[in-house]
Amino acid sequence: MREKQIIRTTKETDINLTLNLDGSGTYNGTCGVGFFDHMLSAFCVHAGFDLDLKMKGDLEVDCHHSIEDLGIVLGQAFAEAVGDKGSICRYGSFYIPMDEALGFCSLDISGRPFLVFDAEFTNQSVGTLDCCMVKEFFRAFAFNGGITLHLKCLYGENDHHIIEALFKAVAHALKEAVKPNGGQILSSKGMLA
């Protein structure tokens, strides 16, 4: 089973996270930001991952530290759960329509982290989630997970729909990329990174 627990404590956040890449699509716990819990739940359902989260953050300041640190820890757990990356499909791409919004993700679990994020938001926040933190979360996740991650909202008007389309697109792309490929390293140079 590809599962990893990460515990990370700073002066700003206290996170205990367990990620199972071969789960049933279940999210248990809370990050303290309601809309982001909604996104994590959708992420798990669509990726088929299980995520257990116990977390406290300095939300009296704002949501920045909590969301960014969660991206760091989730990325670390993902990288360790995937392992040497030598026996997975590696690549994944997916489009997700969410009412008027269309989100796209293309990714490579290569060990070479990068983020291209092309989405604009109309409002400052959705619930208590600052919209600017969506990019910060995915940057932290990609760089700690060793993922080349391209995200784009092709069009959309409702920030809730745009964000949800992106999360679901990432989930489906990851679901494809982590599938076993029979043990062959998918690289002409014989290794990843």
From TrEMBL:
Entry keyword Lyase: yes
Broad class of enzyme this protein falls into: lyase
Family: Belongs to the imidazoleglycerol-phosphate dehydratase family.
Keywords associated with the record: Amino-acid biosynthesis, Cytoplasm, Histidine biosynthesis, Lyase
Entry-linked HAMAP family: HisB (MF_00076)
Catalysed reactions, semicolon-separated: D-erythro-1-(imidazol-4-yl)glycerol 3-phosphate = 3-(imidazol-4-yl)-2-oxopropyl phosphate + H2O
Compartments, as annotated in UniProt: Cytoplasm
Metabolic or biological pathway: Amino-acid biosynthesis; L-histidine biosynthesis; L-histidine from 5-phospho-alpha-D-ribose 1-diphosphate: step 6/9
Enzyme Commission code(s) on record: 4.2.1.19
Location (main, coarse): cytoplasm
Organism field: Blautia stercoris
PANTHER family named among the record's database cross-references: IMIDAZOLEGLYCEROL-PHOSPHATE DEHYDRATASE, IMIDAZOLEGLYCEROL-PHOSPHATE DEHYDRATASE HIS7
A Pfam match: IGPD
Protein name: Imidazoleglycerol-phosphate dehydratase
Gene3D superfamilies: Imidazole glycerol phosphate dehydratase, domain 1
Name of the coding gene: hisB
KW Amino-acid biosynthesis (keyword) present: yes
